[in-house]
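Justification of resources, computational component.

The compute hours requested in this renewal are based largely on the per-chain cost of generating structure records like the one below. Each record pairs the submitted sequence with a full structure-token output. That output is archived, and it is also reused by downstream analysis tasks.
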Amino acid sequence: MSFEEFKDIFCKKVKFANLSLNEKQVDMFYRYMCLLLEWNEKMNLTAIVDPEEVIVKHFVDSVMIADYFKFESNVIDVGTGAGFPGIPLKIVRPDLKITLLDSLNKRIGFLNEVISELEMKEIFAIHGRIEEIGKNKKYREKFDYSTSRAVANLAVLSEYMLPMVRVGGSCICMKGSNVLEEVNGARNAIDILGGKIEKIDEFLLCDTDMKRSIVSIKKEKSTPNKYPRKPGIPTKEPLY
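The structure output for this chain reads:
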């Protein structure tokens, strides 16, 4: 897909996120897509390879939370994978300081390549498991926000995300449709971990029938030191 074709489709789709982007930002998204598809031929980054689907399901989906963050906030993207939502957020909100966390070192190599090629500042990719990073004093309760997209059930996700956020900060959880049952099953875990559900927003993605939900969790008190538990335990024994 040429840049002009990309620009035409992207600008139409991104309007659904109520964002007005300049030429440089559109070009950054285009170069990001090219790198994603190029690297995807060598390693598994995404099952979505059609350019228009990348625009809708990765780019626009990621930036739907762009206005959830206060100016110049410090954000960690937990389980970022190929950089979603962290890199699209950084492109549309350059004021944010973003840390991309992933457990696979090969993906960190890709993320660093994107950061370098797009000449992005105040965005960092780190390798590690969230259960271990969440115990590290360098990162624990140091962020204004944590966010995550399609990583785990909300009860498990809360144990990953809440330890990273300072008291007064928030977790912005990107989920699919029918999230209410998941939310109700996670309320006890969220309470144990020091959080409280603030709001749930639901919307349709662009001009599709794909439903999305955004669950905002406020950090009201410090997370007990024993959380997150050791790698593998949160998924095997969620705090229901």
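The mean pLDDT is 94. The beta strands are 74-78, 97-102, 123-127, 143-149, 165-175, 195-204, 211-219.
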